[in-house]
Amino acid sequence: MGKNTLQWLGHSTFLVNTARGTKILIDPWITGNPACPVEKEDLSALDIILITHDHGDHMGEDVPFFASTGDPEILVQPEVLAKLSADGVEGGTGMNIGGTATARGVEVTMVQAHHSSGVGSPCGYIITTEDGKKVYHAGDTGIFATMGTLGDLYELDVALLPTGSHFVMDDRQAAHAVELLRPKTAIPMHFGTFPVLTETADEFVRLVEQGGSGAKTKVLRPGDEMEF
Ligand SMILES: [Zn+2]
What we know:
Elements: E1 5-8, E2 14-17, E3 23-26, E4 48-50, H1 56-59, H2 63-69, E5 73-76, H3 78-86, E6 93-94, E7 100-103, E8 106-112, E9 123-128, E10 134-137, H4 147-153, E11 158-162, H5 171-181, E12 185-189, H6 202-210, E13 216-217, E14 225-227
Parallel strand pairs: 3-4, 4-5, 5-6, 10-11, 11-12, 12-13
Antiparallel strand pairs: 1-2, 1-14, 2-3, 7-8, 8-9, 9-10
The site of zinc ion (ZN) has 6 residues, from loops.
């Protein structure tokens, strides 16, 4: 059996490959993403697509391509699904905050996020792989106290947290979020993509190390892959 891996494709876009071979793309901003090292054609046979909200730097424009070149299960809010189906995407399953859906043996739990969106409410996801590993993708959000509840309810192996400020948490909030969530590993995202965002996650790393969570930080470069 292989290992669970996740690859940062820049900004908030991640590809999770489970040990059982399930490919999950989160926030599929490939075309137009200045930090993304791959083309949409490089991502074939996706099994699951998750979209935290319908802003262009998260939903992107490639979902119709992925839906027509494969048979991915798309797990999003009903309003987001309606928007995709207006763009010609067939299938998909609507779900909402608090709920868990199982697709291809992977459990996907939708959780809250505090942000804005065109349709639906922004959300985050907790993915539980077939062998029980848990990855939290926070989407775009400011800090919220019930991240502590998520930390109580789920033993997170990995937390993917936005740190770039301006539209999302800054380093200070994101580092405190790590203390609430208590993941084994915290990975910053949504920084360095465009000028208004912070350029690095150095301060995030420093603050997490100073804090008492015991979480490790791992700063990826776009294209980097790690096992979890
Ligand atoms: Zn957004």
